[in-house]
Design goal:
The chain is an alpha/beta fold. The chain has 27 helices and 20 strands. It is found in: Cell inner membrane.
Length: 725
């Protein structure tokens, strides 16, 4: 025996405990969907982790030191001239990523030629790697004919053993054929393949990109970051599929940057050295000319000697000229580094003015000497001044040569480029974990979303809130589900197999109908007749199941019961009764058959049945015929109970016509299918037609954790079966 009670929930539906319990119940109800979805995502994550191409990382470490001249012992002006401050890491980062540095790498490694093997989409590359069938090719030169497209070329291996291949254009036309290690030329194209590891008919895509595009690609893939704050140590890193390629690229970039830094630091010395070497011949010529003039004048004037006063003036003049020449060299250096408004430049100009004033004063003093003395003084001064300038320039040239030779730059390569042993991407364990978590979260979100969008009634309390009593909650029968499958497959069954109340009388659904029998007895005590109409809001809710099996339960209780299938549109109750649908109700109402001809016995004692009959074109008009009242009055007098199964009231008006003759009207709602609003509209539709709905039968109730944990207890959660021992 089964116990079917409908107690009120023990907790109010608005509390937090009920909400948490209902959410927990929703997860339990959807546990298989959550488990399967999570498992599928986990499998996808594992598959991706296995098939994804490993990405390796290569890096190098560079130190940027404070600038200094190559020979600190030079000191003085030379140290000031070639000294400098500390380089900015941000500035050096931009220099490393400049076209000047990266362009050298692009040219040296031929990065304007892009070649890659072709595999099946999505999984081909990963499968080839797992099976050890990866293809490899190295193209050291690829020249495209003028005016031809740069991309879309394809290399096809024609003979793997001999290393022979064929180059095709984007339309598959052959351009040239070649062999590994030999330069292939045809129609303005040049292709030189140095290495080829592939099977016959293997294909490689080949394209030529511009130098600027190759540099931009390198800029995007190269990462330069300072290690720590203001440490002056930069890390150059790059990721890629080919370990050898990324190592070669990072190594070449670091070396190019180092070399340009050395060249830049020695550029000032080189420029000054060039300047001095250009002027040395001129100064030497001036010195020789001055010496010739002095010797010639002495010979003409029989070796005139200078007085003590003239010698003193000469020494002073030579000293002033020397100082002015030094200021001239300093002015050349300072003008390259500072503007004329800089204090150092202004100080230099003030010193020059002072020396020029002193020179002018000395010239006035020399004017007082005799003419011969003045001329000898002038010629001697030119010789000594030019001689000092020449010697000073020679010394500067030697110093600059030393500076240039000793320049090492302020950049040092600490760590040469190396490739990490293990791939940095993909992180397989993380991918699998994230994919599993994503599957779990997505499935949980779907479960909650379905619960939020689901509007079907799941509790008798929701129906009773409309003022409509629930007479029974009939659980979903697995046995009946199997019978429905057999009906759809058109298997031949007898009534002992097709009617659940006869085939499995201990089923929980039948126990619920026995409870309904008791409730219905009291509900009909005040009814005007013993005719019960069964209807509902929509099709597919189990009206025919309830009508047929309740009739069988009543009949087994010793009552004479007549079941009428009044759904003349889609009624199929004859399948459960295992009789023919013709003749039936439609035939009787149309006057084609007599009452005795349409009443059939399905094989259950005390149970008679009238099928729907032939499908008429006007079911509603037939039901309005006086023969229906005659039939129902006769059935009411000759049977203890008359059950009339009708179509949905929200679809057609047939139930409203039949309900006018029935003493009791019951509606059936399906658990999780019919919304509360739909049941309310059904009740209101009957009331509009003057028919009182006595109560509701909640059919196909499923035991759900969301209902249990949400506070809906006691709806056929227990069974009390017989002990067979």
């Amino acid at each position: 025996m089964s116990i079917a009670q409908n107690p009120q929930p023990s907790t109010s539906p608005g509390t937090d405990e009920v909400d948490i319990g209902k959410l927990f119940g929703i997860l339990i109800d959807n546990r298989w969907m959550i488990i399967i979805t999570t498992f599928i995502f986990a499998v996808i994550g594992i598959g991706y982790a296995l098939l994804a191409t490993p990405i390796y990382k290569a890096d190098a470490l560079i130190q940027i030191e404070a600038k200094s001249s190559g020979m600190p012992a030079l000191g003085g002006d030379m140290a000031e001239m070639f000294g400098g401050g500390e380089s900015s890491a941000t500035t050096e980062t931009e220099i490393i990523k400049s076209r000047m540095v990266l362009g050298e790498t692009v040219d040296k490694l031929n990065l304007t030629t892009v070649v890659s093997p072709e595999y099946l989409p999505m999984v081909g590359k990963g499968l080839a790697r797992l099976m050890g069938e990866q293809h490899f090719i190295n193209v050291s030169r690829f020249t495209v004919a003028d005016g031809r497209e740069l991309g879309g070329y394809q290399i096809v291996v024609t003979n793997a053993d001999k290393g022979e291949y064929q180059l095709n254009d984007s339309e598959g036309r052959k351009i040239l054929t070649g062999k590994v290690g030999e330069l292939a030329q045809a129609n303005g194209y040049q292709l030189f393949v140095t290495d080829l590891q592939a099977t016959k008919d293997a294909e490689f895509s080949l394209a030529k990109i511009s130098r600027i595009d190759a540099i931009q690609n390198l800029q995007r893939s190269l990462s330069v970051a300072e290690q720590g704050k203001q440490t002056g140590i930069l890390q150059l890193s790059m990721t890629g599929e080919n370990r050898a390629d990324i190592k070669a690229i990072v190594d070449d970039i670091s070396k190019n940057y180092f070399l340009q830094n050395v060249e830049r630091n020695s550029a000032e010395a080189e420029n000054s050295l060039t300047f001095l070497k250009q002027h040395l011949p001129e100064i030497k010529i001036q010195l020789m000319t001055a010496e010739d003039k002095l010797n010639s004048y002495r010979q003409q004037n029989e070796s005139v000697d200078l007085s003590l006063e003239a010698k003193s003036a000469l020494e002073t003049m030579v000293g002033l000229e020397s100082q002015l020449n030094q200021l001239t060299f300093k002015e050349t250096d300072i003008s390259q580094r500072f503007t004329k408004e800089h204090p150092a430049y202004i100080s230099l100009m003030d010193k020059r003015k002072t020396l020029l004033k002193e020179q002018a004063r000395l010239n006035k003093r020399i004017e007082t000497l005799p003419a011969t003395q003045r001329e000898i003084l002038r010629l001697t001064r030119d010789v000594e001044v030019n001689q000092q300038i020449y010697v000073q320039l020679l010394n500067k040239v030697q110093e600059l040569n030393i500076v240039k030779a000793s320049t090492v730059g302020n950049v040092r390569i600490l760590d040469a480029a190396q490739v990490y042993t293990n791939a940095v991407k993909p992180k397989k364990a993380l991918i699998v974990v994230l994919a599993t978590l994503l599957g779990g979260m997505l499935s949980v979100a779907i479960a909650f979303l379905r619960a939020a969008l689901h509007r079907g009634v799941e509790s008798p309390d929701e129906i009773e809130a409309l003022g409509l009593p629930v007479y029974a909650s009939i659980p979903l029968s697995a046995w009946q589900t199997d019978l429905e499958k057999k009906f759809k497959s058109k298997q031949q069954l007898n009534v002992n197999q097709a009617l659940l109340a006869v085939a499995n009388p201990a089923d929980l659904s039948i126990e619920a109908l026995r409870s309904l029998r008791t409730s219905l007895h009291f509900a009909m005590m005040e009814a005007r007749n013993n005719i019960v109409m069964i209807s509902g809001p929509s099709p597919g809710i189990g009206k025919s199941f309830v009508s047929a099996n309740m009739a069988a339960v009543m009949a087994k209780g010793g009552q004479r019961v007549l079941v009428i299938d009044a759904d003349m549109r889609k009624g199929r109750m004859e399948r459960q009764m295992c009789v023919d649908s013709k003749p039936g109700l439609a035939d009787y109402l149309s006057g084609q058959q007599t009452l005795e001809q349409v009443i059939k016995s399905p094989g259950v004692e005390g149970l008679d049945f009238i099928a729907r009959g032939a499908v008429p074109p006007n079911p509603s008009e037939l039901l309005m015929h006086p023969r229906l009242k005659t039939l129902l009055d006769w059935a009411s007098d000759n049977y203890d109970l008359v059950l009339v199964d009708t179509p949905p009231i929200l679809a057609v008006t047939d139930p409203a016509i039949v309900g006018a003759h029935a003493g009791t009207t019951m509606i059936v709602a399906r658990f999780g299918l019919n919304p509360v609003k739909e049941i309310e509209v059904t009740k209101h539709r009957f009331e509009q037609n003057g028919i009182e709905v006595k109560g509701c039968i909640l059919n196909a109730v499923v035991r759900k954790a969301s209902s249990t944990y949400g506070g809906n207890y006691g709806y056929y959660n227990y069974s009390y079966a017989s002990d067979n021992k």
